[in-house]
Design a protein that fits this description.
Number of helices: 6
Strand content: under 5%
Radius of gyration: 20 Å
Number of strands: 0
Low-confidence stretches: none
Helix content: over 70%
Length: about 210
């Protein structure tokens, strides 16, 4: 089955890892980061599931319910982005193979490449944004969720930071080749900001959890 129609989210874990390890262009770092991000969010959701309905946490019941709704949305969104990232890479993969023997072909290839590079930045940027939102949620789970599942909130934060950093590399490598330097700078600046701000926040969550459970 061609990669355009394949849904990586429907694959068993072992099949996904096998394809990821192969020479196939997709899935790659973007799809892997989306999956890791979704797993990170799911860990937060698990903390919420273990908190809801407990008398000890009645005061935060409404807060956790709100977090659960957001976490459910983000986990599904990140899984969808696995396939979006693969689809977004297809035009770029084809653009690299375009002929460039004549000035006309070279100009055409440059035009197609520019659009394909922009398209290829789209899904990774959405992964970054979703992971940032999820790290905010993880802070709330760590602060208000069941202390019996606190380690899972810390693990979720660590995974989300990894997904955040991994997805940013897809932005950087594609933006570097853009001819539109203003757009390249805008994309890299947003990636820089999200990685710096939310990477630090994930570290804070992890350290706070570590201090409490050790």
């Amino acid at each position: 089955m061609e990669s355009e129609t394949r849904s990586f989210t429907a694959l068993p874990c072992n099949d996904f890892v096998e394809i990821l390890a192969s020479k196939d262009a997709v899935p790659g770092g973007g799809g892997a980061s989306a999956l890791v991000g979704s797993i990170g969010v799911a860990l937060g959701h698990m903390v919420g599931s273990l908190t809801l309905g407990k008398k000890k946490y009645a005061a935060v019941e409404e807060d956790i319910q709100r977090c659960q709704q957001k976490a459910n949305f983000l986990a599904k969104r990140l899984l969808d982005l696995m396939d979006e990232d693969a689809r977004a890479f297809e035009p770029l993969s084809k653009a690299y193979g375009l002929p460039h023997a004549t000035p006309e072909e070279t100009a055409r290839k440059a035009q197609v490449m520019e659009q394909a590079l922009l398209t290829a930045c789209g899904a990774p940027m959405e992964i970054l944004r979703a992971c940032a939102e999820a790290i905010d949620l993880m802070a709330e789970y760590a602060a208000k969720g069941s202390r019996l599942a606190l380690s899972d909130a810390g693990a979720g934060a660590a995974l989300l930071k990894g997904a955040l950093q991994a997805a940013s590399l897809n932005i950087y490598i594609n933006a570097k080749s853009l001819q539109d330097r203003a757009e390249a700078d805008r994309l890299t600046a947003e990636a820089d900001r999200l990685v710096a701000e939310y990477g630090a926040k994930a570290d804070e969550i992890f350290s706070a959890v570590q201090r409490e459970i050790r």
